[in-house]
Structure formats: C-alpha cells, structure tokens
Amino acid sequence: MHETILISDIDLADERYRISSDNDIISLAQSIKIMGLINIPMVKTSDHGYIVVSGFRRIKAMVHNGTDEIQARVLPQNRAGVSSALPKFLQHDKGSERAGELHQAKILPQDGQAELDLDLEAVLISISDNAFQREFDTMEQAKAVVLLSRFISFSEIAEKSYSIFNAKMNSRLVQKLFTTGSMPKEIHELIRNGKLSMTAALRLNEYDGETMQGFIEIFKKIKMGLNKQIEIITNIHETARRDDTTPLDLLNSKDIKSIIDDDNNDNSRKGNLLRTLIAQKRFPNLLMAKKRFSENMKQLKMGSDLKLVAPVNFEAREYTFSFNFTSLEELKQRVEKLDSITKNPIMEQIVS
Amino acid sequence: MKIDKIFMDSHIKPCDETEIIISKSGIKPEIVFNSKEVFDYVNSGDDPVLIGKKTLYITENHGAVIKKCPGTSYYTCCDYTILHTGTFCTMDCSYCILQAYFHPPVLQYFVGQEKISKELDNVFEQKKIYRIGTGEYTDSLIWEKFNDQPSFLVKKFAAQNNSILELKTKTVNIESLKKLDHNNKTVIAWSLNTPRIISSEERSTASLTARLEAAKKCESWGYRLAFHFDPLVIYDGCEKEYKEVIKSIFTHVSPESILWISIGSFRFMPQLKQIIEKRFPESKLPYGEFITGIDNKMRYFKPLRIALYQEIISYIREAAPDLLLYFCMEDQDAWEQSLGFFPSKEGELGSILDKSAVEHCMLDASLTV
C-alpha cells in the first residue's frame, strides 16, 4: 500500500533492517532533486510511527533536500498470518519448515543495543530490494545473512540464495558470512573500508576480544593485502605457540608497538618493517641467513649489471648469476667483473 | 588404540588367518560388498583419522604386494623394497604422514599369505640383494598379538639368501619371534625418539625403555637390530636428550648387533600441518623453523638440521665408531657436512646398505654389485 507519510514520523535511528553500507547521500540527493524519487522506500508501522525497511539512503537524501513528506510503501506492524504474504519459495516448503512457522524473531543485541523485533517479510524485502539493484559488498551480505539466520537455517539460506541475493552461495560461505556479521563493529568497519579481508577477519575470530583488538590496531593503522594480513596473523600465532606465550603478549611487545605507532613512516614502509620483524621472530635463523646474504652481496659491489640469486630458503645448492649485455664489449666487461668476483673471499663465504 | 569395529570384504573366505584376528579381537565382523561402505563409516565422524585407527578392514591387496619405496625427488633414497601387508596403524603419532596420505586412512589387513609367499619366491630367485620391509605403510608388528603374520614372514625369509626382512616398529610385540629359526635374515628395527617426544607426540606407543628392553631380548634371541632416528624433532635442549637416548641404546645392546642406524629429521606434506593442529592441539611440532623443500615437503631450515645431525652422529660415533649410519631423504650438504661423504651415484646408498646386510645377515656375497 503506498502512502504519503511525514518523514518526521520515521525513526531514522532504527537500522534493524538496514543492509546498505554506503552512507554517502549527496549524489543521490542531487539525483532525486533532478529526477524525482524513482523507487519508493518501504517502511513498517511501529508503536511510535514508522521504521525503515528499505530505502535508508533515499529517505536521508530527501531529508537532505529539505523534504517533509515522502511516498512510501507501508507494511503493517507484525501481523498474524503473515506467512501468506511471504514469497512462495518460503511457504510450505518441506525443507524450510522454520520459515513457514517462524516469521517473527528478535535480532540479538550487539554492542549495547536493545533486543529488537524482526519480521521475516520485512527482512526479505530489505535484502531483495537492494540485491536486485546492485551487487552487495561483503558486509552487506554478512548483515543480510545474520538477519535471515534468525528465521531460516544456513543450508536453507544457501539453497534460496539465488532468489534472495541474486547470487549463488553455498552453506560454507553462508556460515562464514554469519560469523563475520556477528563479529564486533570495528571488524565490520575495517572490512567495509577494505582494510581487512573476510578471510583474515575469520582468523581473528579465533581469538578473545583483547587479542582481536591487538590485531585490529595493526590493520586499522597499516593497510595491507590479504596474504600479508594472513602472514602476520599466522606468524604471530605460531611464534606464540612455539614460545609458550600469547599472541596478545607478542602484539603488545615494545618492538611491534613502536612500528605500529610510528607516525614518521609511511604505510608501506611500516607494513614491510612489521612483516619483517614478525617473520624474524617466527623464522630467526632463516631471516638471519637472508640478511647475511644481502650484506655479503653489498660487499661484493656487483652493481646493477650482475645479479646473484641464492637458492630458495637456502635449501637447494645452486646459486644463479645473471647479467645482460648489448654488445661484445659489454659481455667482456661483465665476464671480467664476474671473474674478479669469483676471486673475492666474500664469494667463497657465500657459497661455503 | 583398541579396535572397536571390523569390516570384512565379502570376497574374503574365512580362514585361519582371519579367524584368529576375529576371535582375538572379540568383534563380530560386518561383511561389506564394497569398500566404499567402510570409507563412508570412517568418514562419518569428526575425526576420521581416529575412527580409521579403530576400524579394521580385512580385505585383500588389490595392488602390488612388493614395490619400490616411493622416495622423493632430489633427496637421496636408500632404495628400500616394501612388502605391502596392510595399511595404517593402531598407534597415533602426531607426525604420522599416513594421516594425510590415505583418503581416508583405514586400518587394513591384507589377507593372503599364499600370495605373499608366491611373490616373495619370485624375489628370492633374483640375482640381487633385497632389503625388504613391512613398515612403510603400517607398523610391522601391530598384528603380532593377533595372528602369525610376523612369524610367517620370519620363517619365509629364513629359507633363502638374497634378502633380509626388516620389521620396523614402535611396539614391543616380539614374543612370537622368540623361538623362531630366523637364520639371521630378519632385522628387528625400532623407531626411536626422546622420551619427551614419545610422550607428547607418539600416543599409544611403547616407551623408550620398553623398546630398548625389547631390542635387548631380540638381541639375545640372535636377531640383528636396527634403529631409526626418524623423525628427529628440533626443540630447546633436544641435543642433550637425543644424547641420552643414544647412551641408552648402548647400555641395552651391543653395537655389533646393530646393522645400521638411519637418521632423518621431521618433514611433512603441507596438508599434514592442519591435521596435527586439529588432532594434536597441544603439539608444538608444526611451529618449528620449516621451509618448503625442493620436493615441496616442509623441512627444518637446513643449517638447523645439519647442526643436530652433527651432534647426534658424534654421539653415536663416540660409542660405536664403526656403525653404519645413513640418512633417510637428505641432500648432499647434509651428508657431506655430517657424515663426511655423499653417496652421489644412483643406487650407491642402496649398495652400501646391501653390503652391510650381506656381511651381517649371511646373504650371498656374490650378489653385491
């Protein structure tokens, strides 16, 4: 049912059905000014007016534009027999009995929030309204799965994912999204801002809150890719296990802290320093050997013409020399240089 | 670990070999027409490896009974020959590669002493020396308490002169070997480690002392012995503890009874790490300083393993200067820097071991290369 309602009657702070992560409304407000509201938002009657089901950004854009009233589709407050209003695929489906019976649920309180009533129909509308217009980001998928999981199982969500999310998901992914969506808000923020991958977040979920916070501090301050994040988490974990200490003690150690908190270094340098330091703790002998090799290389003063490569992890026995040349004269020069290097005692040290 | 379920292949006809296992275990076997039923049962729980250790599948060997040790690329192999009598093990070692090697891991007993006998007869007719062992895919003596498999093999090998049988174990299941006429053709070998590693990483195995006491008994029954320090584990103070183990060997048995001692450090397929972390959450084994080796297995950083080898070899040399030592799957650096030589030619290590076998086990010397 479409109605014209006062925006002041909508509780914009109630975001229980909110899926979208994007808070930027300026361009949308501009578009609405020119084109008008193309898709009307959906609200639901509450004890004190309305709460938003779908169209948070659109309504906020209207507020930004100074509009008082808005056209909205209004869902009535939790109704009996709501299952008749559910999409067919969630009714009388043998595999989704819960959905047929359970159409009211509560969202679990998180970060001090009060417990909130949820309605399956509204949840489905809020997800599908977004999902069929654009691609969800990870946190949007996670939020949607958390909401849906109040009504239907992970396997059912996976089974119906194409109809609900406009994308195919398997149960394992649904489980991972649920875990991610149930993690602290700071983790959500990092994922949303591209500073933490879901894979790394799930690894952090193995830790207590304080340890998780220690890792959050790193990834908040130093942006790095998934592989590097996993490398840091793994090396901290394994070093702690080996040394009978805790990851938190390692994260709080002075040397690690001083790199994270050093504002004089840029992001990339801080990331490299941190990874090297943590790798040194995990693989002290290997890193020492690499350092010694690179110091010896410097002493050989080969310049950029010649390149010496050590065996990977010093496991094989073969070293590789390479050089480029453009003329016979250059080739002679390189060979002469190579010859002098073979006589250098440093070279003997390297290969001994 | 106690077997609590037995499946029996429907193709297997009940015979003495199977009946004795069944009666001693006290478990009525479930007849299966397809091995998939067994694999599904093993895979049904959270810990298929553990279920696989408690589930015996009596079946026949559908593949080769005798095969070459697979070895690995780049690292030097001893050219061992495997007698394939069964798979997996009732003991539970955290580092055991079989956990990741079989999909899923199932304790299998291969019925068919006649088939084994026939295959061995072919080997015994060859004009070359063989070192044959049953301890590659299982422990050689886990069935000793159940049936006569070990004594059948000991007797079989006693009647020829080109092969030795090496029974490799972490058990002390030796009683049935006592009165056998082994004719020096059987070597009883124990895998050894420090008491710390045995208690933390080798569940349900015999203690170090029990193993060495068993070795002493076998020595008194005239058997040749061998020991395998594999896998060596690097941890703080390990050198001192391995030294104690070595001292202990020579207080129990004489160096003259020992055919060889092999040495190898812990190495593993990368997928084993997760299995250890899940099944042995207290184990620190995966957190050593490992690098990816040339065969894509994880190995301790080379200078670390060479340093431990050097220590261990010097302790052994102190007690038994003439004892034959060799590495299992190591490279030229490890050999040269720890043992002072490298068997560089194809089959050279195998030849060295063959010669020792000929000398100690009265094999036909004319067959050595």
Strand order of the largest sheet of chain B: 4-5-9-10-11-13-14-18
Overall structural class of chain A, as computed from helix and strand content, comes to alpha/beta
Report strand % of chain A. 5-15%
By DSSP (H or I, 4+ residues per run), the number of helices of chain A equals 18
Q: Radius of gyration of chain A in whole Å, from Cα?
A: 29 Å
Terminal-residue CA separation of chain A: 84 Å
Number of helices of chain B: 13
Please provide the ordered H/E string of secondary-structure elements of chain A.
EEHEEHEHEEHHHHHHHHHHHHHEEHH
Kindly estimate the percentage of residues of chain B that lie in beta strands according to DSSP: 15-25%
Sheet of most strands of chain A: 5 strands, mixed
Low-confidence stretches of chain B: none
The whole-number mean of residue pLDDT values of chain B reads: 94
- What number is the mean pLDDT of chain A? 88
In which order are the strands of the major sheet of chain A placed?
A: 1-5-3-4-2
| Quaternary structure state of the chains depicted | heterodimer
**First-to-last CA distance of chain B:** 44 Å
Structure class of chain B:
alpha/beta
Shape of chain A: elongated
Query: What composes the largest sheet of chain B?
Result: 8 strands, mixed
Kindly state the number of beta strands of chain A.
Answer: 9
